[in-house]
Structures are given as structure tokens and as C-alpha cells.
Design brief:
The chain is α+β, with helices and mostly antiparallel strands. About 35% of the residues lie in helices and about 30% in strands. Strand 1 and strand 2 form a beta hairpin. This is GHMP kinase N-terminal domain-containing protein.
Length: about 280
């Protein structure tokens, strides 16, 4: 019998940086969830001994499948297929979405239920860092240690974004060999931004949230710069976008709008600049 699981991915982050928590600095983010892309996985219990996955390069999802079988106390065997997946290596959370879709598919093959902590444990063991797409509320999430630093008690308000790969040739993101350390000055800025985040999320203040996203994007540009940045800033000015959000470890950029009509007009403008844009709702 075949079982299915799915998970929508995200469109990068509203913010990602260094935040102090109980005197300790934490790398944390707020994910911008989106229904534009999803991972769809199937799991068949019948098959050869051991687990196999298709496509075969989805190693992280295969690791998650093994761990899910062990956690659910079922034989580590069967066939996993990733039927649909977000674009890879540009910052849309494809690996986390794949992992979660596989976990859900395997869970459905049993009468057992994995709680959120168990699912987070599997995801963190399957990849170096994970995001927070499984949470309904906006959360400041320590992606290395799978910890919610702060729950803002409500979802983000929705935005329409004009998204595109900052590299017009369709390049992918490669982590630098020596990942740059953030300065003390910028770390202090993030703590100040956290206070503004609480107020902006509480009041669903789109303009302030877009300002915060833009500030975070500017900071990240110092450390892992995206190509065509000045042109992206020009696009924001011309289109009247509320702000710019990015995949901090990726190539994706999003111009943020409160309404779809404005986003569609900005999509045409981005196309004229040589980008390959799309419009999607995030929040």
C-alpha cells in the first residue's frame, strides 16, 4: 500500500540574525511561509530489505525516513519517492519540506502519532539547520538547536511578494568556506529589531515588518552578498514596494506588497530588468 505526505515550503525569511537569549547569543530566524511550492512524498512498505529513495540524491530525506521508522518502531524498509519538491539550493526550504513530507507519509502508514518535538528531532538530525514551517504562529526560531526562542502568539500578516533569483543566470547558493562572523554592532541591531518585531507582529503592522525585513537584508548583504543588489534596490524604489525580504542562505529575493495588483505590476517591471519573477502570497 502507498501512503502520502506533504509539506509546503517557504519564501526565505522575514528576518535572520543573532539574538541574545539569557545572556547567550543565538542564531535565529522568522520564516516567511508560502503555499507556492510544496514537497509531496509517498511511502510504500513493500519492497526490498532496507530503505530506498527516488530521486536518489535526496539523502537528507532518506536519513529522515530511517529515523522516522526507528522512532515509530516499524521495520526500516520500503520505498520513498519525492513526487514533487520546491526548487533546490536557492533558499526556498526544499530539504526541510522534503523531510517533513517523508515523515508524514511514513507516520500515516502506522496508527501512531509523532509529536512536534519528535518531528523536530528527526529534522535536526537529518540536516544541519531547519526552519519553522511546522509552526502556525510567527516564532523566532533557533534553527541550529531546534528551539523556539520566542512565540509571538499570532501568525504574520500576509504579503504578496514578487520573488526571483537574484542571479539572472539562475545561480545557486554555496556556503562560503569561512562563513563570516557578524559584528557586535550588527548583533546589537538585531536585539533592537526584536523589540520592534513584537510590536509590529502584535499590531499586524505590515509597513514596519517590511522595514525590518529590509534592514535584515541590508545587514546580510555585508556578509553573504547577493548579485545585482543595487538593481534590486532600484526595483524597490520604482515599484513602490513596502520592503525587501530575502532567503538569508539562498539566492531568493522578494519585493513585498500589501496587495496582489501592485505585485503583478512589479512583476512586469522585474521581468524588464532581466529577472525571472513570480508572485506569491507569504506570511
Amino acid at each position: 500500500m502507498k501512503y502520502f505526505g506533504q509539506q509546503f515550503s517557504h519564501h526565505g525569511e522575514l528576518i535572520q540574525g543573532i539574538f541574545m537569549e539569557n545572556g547567550v547569543s543565538k542564531k535565529a530566524l522568522i520564516t516567511l511561509k508560502s503555499n507556492q511550492w510544496k514537497s509531496l512524498a509517498s511511502y510504500e512498505t513493500q519492497g526490498p530489505d532496507g530503505l530506498e529513495i527516488f530521486p536518489s540524491h535526496k539523502v537528507k530525506a532518506l536519513n529522515a525516513a530511517r529515523l522516522a521508522c526507528i522512532k515509530l518502531s516499524i521495520p526500516v524498509k520500503g520505498t520513498v519517492r519525492i513526487i514533487e519538491s520546491p526548487p533546490e539550493q536557492i533558499g526556498l526550504g526544499s530539504s526541510t519540506a522534503d523531510i517533513l513530507a517523508v515523515i508524514y507519509a511514513i507516520e500515516k502508514s502506522t496508527r501512531k502519532h509523532l509529536d512536534q518535538e519528535e518531528i523536530l528531532s528527526i529534522t535536526s538530525q537529518s540536516e544541519n539547520g531547519t526552519d519553522s514551517v511546522m509552526y502556525n504562529n510567527a516564532v523566532l526560531f533557533d534553527f541550529k538547536n531546534r528551539l523556539v526562542i520566542e512565540d509571538f502568539k499570532k501568525p504574520l500578516p500576509s504579503f504578496f511578494v514578487v520573488g526571483f533569483n537574484a542571479d539572472k543566470k539562475g545561480g545557486v547558493f554555496c556556503f562560503p568556506a569561512n562563513y563570516p562572523m557578524i559584528s557586535e554592532e550588527d548583533a546589537t541591531r538585531y536585539d533592537l529589531m526584536r523589540k520592534r518585531l513584537r510590536s509590529a507582529i502584535s499590531s499586524s503592522n505590515r509597513e514596519e515588518l517590511a522595514n525590518l525585513a529590509t534592514e535584515s537584508a541590508y545587514i546580510r548583504q555585508k556578509y553573504t552578498p547577493k548579485p545585482n543588489w543595487n538593481e534590486i534596490l532600484e526595483l524597490r524604489e520604482k515599484s513602490g514596494a513596502l520592503g525587501i525580504q530575502i532567503a538569508h542562505s539562498g539566492m531568493v529575493v522578494g519585493l513585498m506588497f500589501a496587495d496582489k495588483q501592485s505585485a503583478e505590476k512589479a512583476k512586469e517591471l522585474a521581468s524588464h530588468h532581466g529577472f525571472s519573477p513570480w508572485v506569491c502570497e507569504v506570511g
